[in-house]
């Protein structure tokens, strides 16, 4: 166990929307410290979403992220020599983190040509409640529902 909890690092808001959640998303999207490129990808995707749907892109992105964030997940717990998948609530911070990671992961796996198009496609799909990232959330919820019998092993 750690002696003390590490200090919480606070992020600066992004330059365009003045939102810390956007900065958090960009930090996960970024490769090799190329933050400007990551910002350009996200801003381009939001503009593309606005063009395709004629709605506010940032609001649609937030809605998509909310559709992806899981409420429950299963955690492995060892009890008496056997492992059980124990369903547990997801902390709010981890909820956002998982949503961001899943959106980026399944955007990268899409078939479009550029990352801007892939991310825009995933945002539009997730805002409608479709897409691979939403499917991942549903699978996580289904897994937790199936293992509800082991919820008394919660820690």
What report would you give on this structure?
Strands 1-2 form a two-stranded antiparallel sheet. The protein is globular. The mean pLDDT is 92. It has helices at residues 20-29, 35-53, 57-68, 92-108, 115-127, 132-146, and strands spanning 72-79, 82-89. The protein starts with 19 loop residues before the first helix and ends in a 9-residue tail after the last helix. The longest helix is centred in the N-terminal third of the chain and has 19 residues, at 35-53. The chain contains six helices and two strands. Helix 4 crosses helix 6. It has 155 residues and is mostly helical. The protein has a single domain (20-153), classed as Ribosomal protein S7/S5 (Ribosomal Protein S7, Orthogonal Bundle).
Task: Summarize this structure briefly.
This protein has 155 residues and is mainly α. The protein has helices at residues 20-29, 35-53, 57-68, 92-108, 115-127, 132-146; strands at residues 72-79, 82-89. The chain is built from six helices and two strands.
List keywords for this structure.
mainly alpha, two-stranded antiparallel sheet, 155 residues, 55% helix, 2 strands
Task: Summarize the helices and strands and which ones pair or pack.
Elements: H1 20-29, H2 35-53, H3 57-68, E1 72-79, E2 82-89, H4 92-108, H5 115-127, H6 132-146
């Amino acid at each position: 166990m750690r002696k003390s909890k590490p200090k919480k690092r606070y992020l600066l808001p992004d330059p365009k929307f003045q939102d810390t959640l956007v900065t958090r998303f960009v930090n996960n999207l970024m490769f090799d410290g190329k933050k400007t490129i990551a910002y350009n990808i996200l801003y381009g995707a939001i503009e593309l979403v606005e063009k395709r749907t004629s709605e506010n892109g940032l609001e649609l992105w937030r809605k998509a992220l909310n559709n992806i964030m899981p409420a429950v997940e299963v955690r492995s717990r060892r009890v008496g020599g056997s492992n059980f998948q124990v369903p547990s609530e997801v902390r709010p911070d981890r909820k956002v983190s998982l949503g961001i990671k899943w959106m980026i992961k399944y955007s990268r796996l899409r078939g479009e040509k550029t990352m801007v198009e892939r991310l825009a496609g995933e945002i539009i799909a997730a805002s409608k409640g479709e897409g691979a990232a939403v499917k991942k959330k549903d699978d996580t919820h289904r897994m937790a529902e199936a293992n509800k019998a082991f919820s008394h092993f919660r820690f």
